[in-house]
Amino acid sequence: xxxxxxxxxxxxxxxxxxxxxxxxxxxxxxxxxxxxxxxxxxxxxxxxxxxxxxxxxxxxxxxxxxxxxxxxxxxxxxxxxxxxxxxxxxxxxxxxxxxxxxxxxxxxxxxxxxxxxxxxxx
Length: 122
Fold this sequence. Notes:
Elements: H1 5-9, H2 18-35, H3 43-60, E1 66-70, E2 75-78, H4 90-98
Antiparallel strand pairs: 1-2
């Protein structure tokens, strides 16, 4: 993936410092390399998916997308939820649209197991 900080900033308005964006580019590159390892996909398209994926990562963490704002007694309501994955941001939705192979949508998700440990009542 050849996504750059400048290419990411073309699609998302962010005040994040370049090192933060670069760390997300690196993480996205590692993830997408793994996800698309056995998939034939046009390199230009993969780079575009990567750029939108980084924007999604920014919008999901550092630059959450506002849904509703209020000036008196300042308040903001954010769009999306963490549980919705790529559907949570417009950038993630673009990733899904650009991925004509369906690979990222069908990428395996980690399963978690929660075990309750009872308290000792003595």
